[in-house]
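Hey,

Quick one before I head out. I ran the complex with flavin-adenine dinucleotide overnight. Inputs first:
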Amino acid sequence: MNDLTPTPQERTAKLKGLGTSRKRVEDARFTQGKGNYVDDIKMPGMLHGDFVRSPYAHARVKSINADAARALPGVIAVLTAADLAPLNLHWMPTLAGDRQMVLADGKVLFQGQEVAFVVATDRYVCADAIELVEVDYEELPVVTDPFKALEPGAPVLREDLAGQTSGAHGARRHHNHIFLWETGDEAATNQVIEAAEVVAEEMIYYHRVHPCPLETCGCVASMDKVNGKLTVFGTFQAPHVVRTVASLLSGIEEHNIRVVSPDIGGGFGNKVGVYPGYVCSIVASIVTGKPVKWIEDRMDNLMATAFARDYWMKGRISATKDGRITGLHCHVTADHGAFDACADPTRFPAGFFHICTGSYDIPVAYVGVDGVYTNKAPGGVAYRCSFRVTEAAYFIERMIEVLAIELGMDAAELRSKNFIRKDQFPYTSALGWEYDSGDYHTAWDKALAAVDYAGLRREQADRVAAFRRGETRKLLGIGLTHFTEIVGAGPVKNCDILGMGMFDSCEIRIHPTGSAIARLGTISQGQGHATTFAQILATEIGLPADSITIEEGDTDTAPYGLGTYGSRSTPVAGAATAMAGRKIRAKAQMIAAWLLEVHDGDLEWDIDRFVVKGAPERFKTMKDIAYAAYHNAIPGIEPGLEAVSYYDPPNMTYPFGAYVCVMEIDVDTGTHEVRQFYALDDCGTRINPMIIEGQVHGGLTEALAIAMGQEIAYDGIGNCKNSTLMDFFLPTAVETPHYTTDHTETPSPHHPIGAKGVGESPNVGGVPAFSNAVHDAFRAFGLRQAHMPHDHWRIWKIANQLGLHG
Amino acid sequence: MSNVLWQHRLGGEQMIAAAFEYHRPAHLKGALGVLAEYGDDARVLAGGHSLIPMMKLRMASVGHLIDLQDIAELKGIRVAGGRVTIGAMTTQHEMIASTELSSAAPVIAEAAVQIADPQVRYMGTLGGNVANGDPGNDMPGLMQCLDATFTLAGPDGTREVAARDFYHSAYVTARGDDEILTRISFAAPKGGYAYEKQKRKIGDYATAACAVQVTMAGGKVTSASIAMTNLSDTPIFSAAAGAALVGTSGDAAAVKAAVTAAVAAINPTGDNRGPAEFKRHVAGIIIGRAIMRALSRA
Ligand SMILES: Cc1cc2nc3c(=O)[nH]c(=O)nc-3n(C[C@H](O)[C@H](O)[C@H](O)COP(=O)(O)OP(=O)(O)OC[C@H]3O[C@@H](n4cnc5c(N)ncnc54)[C@H](O)[C@@H]3O)c2cc1C
């Protein structure tokens, strides 16, 4: 070695591996408008499809007359359920074990439902033709309230299920009932609660919202009748699953179907499901022999594709007088809309809602979830959260606040008193989850110190006094949250989607000159996979991240995977990437041993090379080894340097965090201002701190939207009231507050690199933090619970009902 | 277009306008000619940020669209002899950027920056905003506060209508179908001013908004003009509210009396922003704040 030899620090830095705030490689094309989204795809002869949608929430479709539409120049076809029925494609299976109409079959069940599919030479002709399709509806009574839907005389929504007393998830006790899913020990829980010193009971509603990605859903289906191959480009968060479903539905053999997810402009769970638009585009392409494009507009997207939440969570939590929680009971009335189209692992119709014991050591608990049909759009997707985890976090973090009120105790102290202690991990919760690792007290104390919690409480007390003296009309809310997520679905033994185990995969090829390509079964929608997965690999195989291409989304080239949602990419595909990298390194070690003429056991790995133990000047870099793999004839070793790993995670991962939101509330107008937001996240090993910060900022902003204004609401006859961005709140830079991010680092013991996933944490933890701040501002005046969204009117209403308007 | 209409649209949505003929005359005369020729079936297009959304939603069907952007005589801001004259095709951005206007009538910029977002303000015009007749538009109330005059050109020449007489009900104004609004003018205001607006977010129309101009002399209010936005199906000018301030020192009791008078004149309706009782209450707060700010500047 001489002066020119790079130091270990320099060699490490060059890799831009784990822990580096590497700039996102995707951004060059996105910031220059050079992304390639599905609507950018144009194919020769391509046709366009669009839907005639129902103006009614519940009506019988007596007739459809498309003659005038068909006569319009440029119209190629108008498909109705009658056209799809011979192919048995007028209905399709949902991911939740239910079935959904592709096109209205005799009736419509929600406003915006797909009634007919118009195919024409361009989008403008489609729009004109839609106006010409005459549909004769007979209105039926509408039910949009899940509690009313379960009343004895409620209108029958799903006539197709008449007489079916059980569904995919067990018994149905009413014609609008989907399932009752239960876990935990109800009898023991009731016993503890009945005997408890203190019990707090509350109905917590997590309203209906929508992921609303900037890019709506869409696809281009192209059937090549000559070679029998179907290609579908689309906004798919799980392209392989779409391929399998397309094959099962169409009967086309899976090797003849290629599904490609190009750049995706945000998914947030909205792009996991299979929608009528995909089916109709594929059928239309098969019928016409031409590529068919279908792209939703904003109203289509907000009205019809995949809402999230709509959970009525009735909770009872018990404790000793000094604040030790003894039991938790929760019953959920889950409004699934017209079809059960939730995208959950098959065996979990309420997702992982039973993570609702949260960060607390609660000895006994019970959860029961009733799924209900209403005349609302289907969905119930995981909007930037693992399956129903944000509902669970909101529920427990509200129940803790209500219990604190009941106990007359400080809510931070109550949390601290009940956290699962560091020495209890791995910890098995009363509802059966095994939490992998955590150190909640450390995170909590750090958060409280960072915001000067005691000082904030003093300021708040002064403010309340000043308010009472008539010196101010503003109140101060301190919103606390300590959340625990369950992400990274999941172990094949209990997690599948349509029978496909929820493993994930990575396939690596090292090129002779020391660069590489890795392909994964996931698909980025803005998370920056091309950046972070290259960093994982760089650290594993010692080639610079800048020399590694990450490719996803093309089922012809990528290994089978279950896609990206539920914060599963890093926990599952990230693990597969590390494991495949280790296979590369194992072979590289044998090659290096041959090159250095030593036993492979005499070598040790050193950042980017294998070094002969005790002789640091004798080494082979990964770059040398890559060349040798293709150049040398090495006895007993196949040429080439490739590896593939399919990773079945042994457990989920459990990221956590401590958030504090300080909010000023104007009692007279209902307006608010977020004065401070502190977010501490513990996502285990941190791959790219800058990407983490970006994810946290984005997720918190969605949480702000959800808590403070975003909703999908219906009027009494089922009209969707928020189908445009005028009324569906999407914050701009102006509404977005400043965020302070922080972290602790508690690696996952079972993940190859200890990473837990972070993309969804801020949405999960942010919503209760904002909402608790609103509640907390009014705690001194007697508020216990007020449902989200906390828009101006609803905050004003709280003040009004508490008599604060004089 | 305010959300009032968007809400009433049931299902069967569209986001692509029906076909139309596009006209782009270079002179006012030409525009009036096309309007006369096609009558009901023709509409003028200014910045398009109210009209085009309605066409895309197919709530306005327009056979002939007459784009006014090439008509030079409809543009420009002039301040002369104590009077401000603004061409109908002047954009909100141009009004905000004009230092001449900002010194003659600073309330215009204060209100204009609260309209939508920069993209909308680059396109949207003063003429379009006041001619539209949507109760959600901010400029009509402000123009009533300033006692502006609208100049309308029609087949038989021009006429003038006071802003305070222009609005009949939502989307129904004193303008005839065959007339084009050419300019808006008003006496350069004196004294203190304020435009106060509560909205849910950037890009939203007002939950409640209020324009105020006041003058004071010798510690007494000598004139006061108060008008409100989106609190009825037209803008509301409340002479009684102004009268409640005149002659007082602008003390708390006087402000309260003015607010009471102003609130008595409104008739808000419930929408996604909240029910009428909420809007009525918030209106009182916003009007009070607008008056206080204007007084503090007088
Ligand atoms: C997202 C969004 C948010 C908005 N928020 C607000 C807001 O908060 N406050 C607000 O005030 N506005 C708001 N607007 C509306 C915006 O200010 C419009 O630009 C304005 O209302 C209309 O001006 P325009 O020049 O775009 O007119 P256009 O849309 O072109 O025309 C509007 C109507 O006026 C008629 N018209 C236009 N010019 C003339 C003329 N010279 N003579 C006769 N008739 C004419 C047209 O025929 C049409 O009927 C918003 C718009 C959008 C898209």
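Chain A has three domains: 8-35+504-647, 42-140+216-264+271-304, 307-488+652-801.

Talk tomorrow,
K.
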